Automatic annotation (TrEMBL):
Alphabetical list of InterPro entries matching this protein: MFS_trans_sf
Keyword annotations: Membrane, Transmembrane, Transmembrane helix
Domain of life the protein comes from: Bacteria
Protein name per UniProt: DUF3147 family protein
NCBIfam families with a match to the protein in the record: PRK09272.1-4 (NF006751)
Parts of the chain that traverse the membrane: 31-48, 60-80, 86-108
Length: 117
């Protein structure tokens, strides 16, 4: 139980640090948010918990493929925010991400990348 709490605290600290940095500097906050810090932590947690190398490698592999269709949302969000407000922009961004993910999953399937069950 102590290990789980430690993981929560460290992971939460990373998220808080990024949001605090973003308050002080848009560019620094964005740079930190763009770094794969959560992925690095997940890889470390998997390694420390003695997961097989194949599982750790698969995590990194699929993370790459799942990140790509999220990128359009980062362009849509700043464009939508002044037009429809924060809440609707979040909803629209989530919808854009879901649609992009579905289309991307279909597009990479012929390449042998199965993103959908």
């Amino acid at each position: 139980m102590g290990w789980l709490v430690t993981k929560y605290l460290i992971t939460a600290a990373v998220v808080v640090a990024v949001s605090e940095a973003a308050k002080r500097s848009d560019k620094l906050g964005a740079l930190l948010a763009a770094l794969p810090l959560v992925t690095f932590l997940a890889l470390v947690w998997l390694y420390v918990e003695k997961q097989p190398q194949e599982k750790i490698a698969n995590h990194a592999w699929y993370t790459f493929w799942y990140v790509v269709p999220t990128l359009p949302m980062f362009l849509a969000f700043p464009w939508l925010l002044p037009r429809i407000g924060f809440g609707l922009t979040l909803l629209a961004s989530a919808a854009i991400t879901v649609v992009c993910f579905g289309l991307f999953a279909l597009a990479v399937r012929p390449l042998g990348v199965e993103l959908l069950p």
